[in-house]
Amino acid sequence: MDKELYVAALAARENAYAPYSNFKVGAALKTTEGRIFCGANIENGSYGLTSCAERNAIFNAVSSGCTKFATLCVVADTAQPVRPCGACLQVMAEFKIQEIIMTNCQGESKRVLLSELLPYGFQLSNKNEE
Ligand code: THU
Q1: Which atom of ligand 1 is nearest to the CA of 18?
Q2: CB of 74 within 8 A of CB of 101?
Q3: For residue 66, which of 41, 50, 61, 125 is within the disulfide window of CB 3.0 to 4.6 Å?
């Protein structure tokens, strides 16, 4: 596994704001140029407004002008490496994040391709690729 990315995801997890679920998640995203952007889950008393760690990492990167990505690493304190939710997979598909490293706090990891987790994601045919 990518140690640098894993350590960044673990550090981001420390910033999770999860007073309702107490389930802290961290994510770290590496651009094709090797830059790393992080995210943590941020919950809200209006539960549906909660924002996942993976999406926060992606939006953090895109907001900083980066849109080309290599790998996303996600970490949580789970028995098995944590799996991204469907909404996050759809956002990963938008930005063609092909490789996902699912991990847990014990350092166990599983590398998967987005195409394995979301083989038939939604696509709009009128996308302007520039
Ligand atoms: N969560 C994530 O951050 N990423 C996921 O892929 C799934 C779930 C968060 C949302 C919520 O704060 C907590 O985990 C429990 O669902």
Answers
A1: 12
A2: yes
A3: 61
Residue 97: count other Cβ atoms within 10 Å of its Cβ: 25
| Ligand 1 centroid from CA 24, angstroms | 7
The verdict on whether 4 is a catalytic residue reads: no
What digits encode the pLDDT tens for the residues 86-105? 999 999 999 999 999 999 99
On whether 46 is known to bind a ligand per the annotation, the reply is yes
Q: The whole model's pTM is what? A: 0.96
121 is in an annotated binding site: no
Q: What whole-number distance in Å separates Cα of residue 75 and Cα of residue 130?
A: 34
Burial 4-22 (b: 16+ CB within 10 A, else e): ebbebbbebbeebebeeee
Annotate 45-68 with DSSP letters as a single string: SSGGG-B-HHHHHHHHHHHTT---
